[in-house]
Description:
Blueprint: H1 2-19, H2 42-49, E1 73-74, H3 80-83, H4 97-108, H5 118-143, H6 167-184, H7 198-218, H8 231-248, H9 262-266, E2 278-282, H10 286-289, H11 299-303, E3 310-311, H12 313-316, H13 339-343, E4 360-362, E5 370-371, H14 372-377, E6 413-417, H15 418-432, H16 437-441, H17 444-451, H18 474-486, H19 493-499, H20 503-506, H21 558-563
Amino acid sequence: MKSLKIIISFIAFGITLAGCEKDFLQRSPLDEVEDSAFFTDPEHLKTYVNQFYNSTIFTRYANHGNDFDSDNQIRINIDQRLEGTRVISSTGSIPFANVRSINYFFDNYKRVEANHPLSAYKQYLGEAYFFRAVIYFNLLQDYGDIPWITTELNSESPDLYKPRDPRNIVADNIIAQLDSAAKYLMEDKTSGAGRINKWMALLMQSRVALYEGTWEKYHNGTDFGVANPQPTKYFNKAVEAAEQIMTSNLYDIYTTSSPSTDYKDLFALRDYSTNKEVMFWKKYDNNLSRGSSAFVNDRNFRMETPSGNTITKQLADSYLAIDGKPITGNPNFLGYSTLKLEGQNRDPRFFQTIASPDDVWKIAAGTPNKFWKEVYDKRNTTGDYNAPTGYLIVKGYNPNMIYHVQQFEETPSILYRYAEVLLNYAEAKAELGTINQDDIDKTIKKLRDRVGMPNLILTNITPDPKWDFPTLSPIINEVRRERRVELALEGFRLPDILRWAAADELIFEKRPKGFLASQHPTNTTPVDNEGFLDPYKNTIPNGYGFKLDRDYLNSIPVSERVLNPALTQNPGW
């Protein structure tokens, strides 16, 4: 009974930690609630790390997608980072609460060694290494240089006043943590809805290494760069980590040999326990969690209407023609006069991401099916039907009304999928300059095969006069295009723009556009000189004001620098 009380108290303690946003320097010492009997049993370790299975560590696919902070999607309100209107916060803090919580684990977990072999608890040790890596990776992306701290601090700890560690040192430490995670975590594929495994740690390692490698390469010589950059080291690590997953033969691309629906269906399935592509996913069960604020889930219900959330023309134009070539000057491209023609003869992912007017919108027993044309026809008649660019979102939506429940849907969400592994591998190889046709065949070809698109042939890449990055090689442009299209709306686009130092090409002084306004006779949205919807025309006539010398990183709050004068401010702030 005493042991049960201890576990319950630490569950409550873990929930408190997970929900707390106060600065770690201002909180009471964790040892005030520590019980010497805790951390003596593997179940105690499991209970403690459970708190990190949260939405901060594992971001689910949001209603209408996760790319609204990029050039892929827009809402009614303009993103402050893209607009360049953020200011330094006078209060607030760097979110170190999770760092302190995970360090508490490492300071105390060895008590379990007295009565239990490593095999009894190594899974939870591996999870702790994984969580510390992800927590710090989030900080690295937001702030760049960050103090690397691996033990719980008290009021007298010298590290309270340490300066920021260089970002490449932090990245090296993150990668090392993931090496340890992969060493201890189970190798079983599992159902993907429970606990993490070795392969998820390696996926995260490929993501971190690719991020840091491209950051160091493309920010080199700027205020955001590092001394003595070593991008090649990180690209090799990204390849190595991804290759381990690929050669495990545990995962593959989901397909039922239905290229016109497989990509869309992947994001609307009800269960991923046997899905070979989905490595980790969030399962919802009303019998277990109904009523919990963490359970709120109504994606299908919300996606019935756009409610101001739409895809940009910039993303729509990225989809190749059905022959695998760019749409510019391509006879397969039928123009913009109607959305139906615009998406015809295109990469099938176009109409598996953007709703076609002919697609089924609602399926309800006893009533005729409804189609997305009805939603397009109602565009901008009410707030629910507000669609700034016109391109409506279907990725992640299931039209079956039995699955549309306000607040408490049991709609699962993909967290990690194998497609990212393949794209990380291909990009790292392209950046190394060592990519060959065999590399493409085992990565990009798999993604294109799913939707019936021609393979990318390294020696026969058709030049695109509208490549986003005309100064870079054709293969890097096409790998980046493939990444954009395959991972659209999944939250990768802003991190990609930041690590590529690409805001000058993609964001600065640009405005997101929509489809041809003449398709909608009662259109009330501003229109550009070519007749395309231009929703921000009057709001930001000069385009996004993203500050190229500042907005690649967040600012350090004033209050943090008062507490620790050794913390320097990020460039441009």
